[in-house]
Amino acid sequence: MKKQILVILITISSTFCYTQITFDKGYFINNADKKIECYIKNLDWKNNPTSFEYRLSENSDKKGLTIKEVKEFGVYNYSKYIRQTVNIDRSSENINVLSSERNPVFEEEELFLEVLVEGKSMLYTYENGSLIRFFYKEENTEIKQLIFKSYKTDKLEIKTNNEFRQQLLLDLKCKSITINDIKILEYTQKELVDFFVLKNKCNNSDVINFDEKQKKDFFNFTLRPGLNFSSITNPDLISSSIDADYGNKLNLRAGLEFEFIMGFHKNKWAVIVEPTFQYYNSEKESSTIKSNIKYTSIEIPVGIRHYFFLNENSKIFINGSYVYDINGNSTLSYNDKKEYKVTSEQNNFAFGLGYKLRNKFSLELRYQTTRDLYNEFFVLDLEYNTTSFIFGYTIF
């Protein structure tokens, strides 16, 4: 039965991986300057793309376009890319291969630049693997790279060329931003986005912060009560003098989930930690012996979750966790006499499939692999198995 549940979970999750909706409302502008409304396959590109897939309607066949065919494309309320020929410095920031040249080594390339801040002062980014470059544009000027470069001196000292601060200072037309503000500015997306947003507002410019549009809640706290369908058995009843099959029991479980959303791939990945109280209590009686087992523990599943968005208000998720088990006051007694301690010998794994509605309510079916228990007196190995139905309510 347990193996069948695991197979069902894997089959259903594989189906959702294949069928999840990934095309979002967007547009592109072709070489004839014609804007075409469509649905774009939103891959939340980590590396700036050179092509993309789209559909003219939700149910039409998908097609592809390359950077040579498109001047601009975007996903509404999420991201925007423009085609631009720019001078880019691809010098490595890897300490082992740093250049001895302080100045950037520019090469002219045609790229899709991602728009981070749109206004009178524009900020763009280009990313490819470990290479991250930022570009900017003021009114009636060309797009230029903001220059930052690490290099080695003749004495093998590592220094940085922070010319981007001087570039921003020369174009600065805002009384609320001081020279000292620029001196401490770092070459990071967060600090540059904040700077360009402030600069646009200071100059009374309408501003669109695409970086902000891509950010959502990065932490969720959820109450997770549920039901455990559990069993404890002896895997070797033939050789054992003790009949230790305590059967299936339906018990309550209570958990608190801490979910940390990872800020990439459309926030589809998360790290989860879920301290949970669980218990199992069963009695076994034969003609010669009566036994009772009480098993309580705090389980701490630590794992990874992946979401598949169905629409704006609902999503499917799958997760896999490594379950740390902190044993409580677990005992095994025979004929109502002395109680003997029961301990868990090892941790185990858990796999779940669930549904979440409006980022508030969730339901999950979770299967755990076998956990070995040990009785100190009879040297009796026991196997604990459980399948859980978990209800969730996200507080924040």
Largest sheet: 11 strands, antiparallel
Tally of DSSP β-strands: 24
Classification by helices and strands: mainly beta
Mean pLDDT: 86
* Percent of sequence in beta strands: over 45%
Quaternary structure state of the chains depicted: single chain
* Count of helical regions: 5
Give me the strand/helix succession: HEEEEEEEEEEEEHHHEHEEEEEEEEEEE
Helix content: 10-25%
Shape: elongated
Spans of 5+ residues with little confidence (pLDDT < 50)?
15-21
Domain module count: 2
Tell me the Rg in angstroms: 29 Å
Q: Give the end-to-end Cα distance, rounded to a whole number of Å.
A: 36 Å
What does this structure look like?
By secondary structure, the chain is mostly beta strands. The chain has two domains: about 200 residues, no CATH class; about 180 residues, Beta Barrel (Porin). It contains five helices and 24 strands. Strands 1, 2, 3, 4, 5, 6, 7, 8, 9, 10 and 13 form an eleven-stranded antiparallel sheet that branches.
Question: What layout of secondary structure does this protein have?
Answer:
Blueprint: H1 2-19, E1 23-30, E2 35-41, E3 51-55, E4 63-66, E5 70-75, E6 79-89, E7 106-118, E8 122-128, E9 131-137, E10 144-145, E11 149-152, E12 158-161, H2 163-170, H3 179-183, H4 189-202, E13 208-209, H5 210-213, E14 219-233, E15 248-261, E16 269-273, E17 276-285, E18 290-309, E19 314-327, E20 331-334, E21 339-344, E22 348-357, E23 361-375, E24 380-394
Antiparallel strand pairs: 1-2, 1-5, 2-3, 3-4, 5-6, 6-7, 7-8, 7-13, 8-9, 9-10, 11-12, 14-15, 14-24, 15-16, 15-17, 16-18, 17-18, 18-19, 18-20, 19-22, 20-21, 21-23, 22-23, 23-24
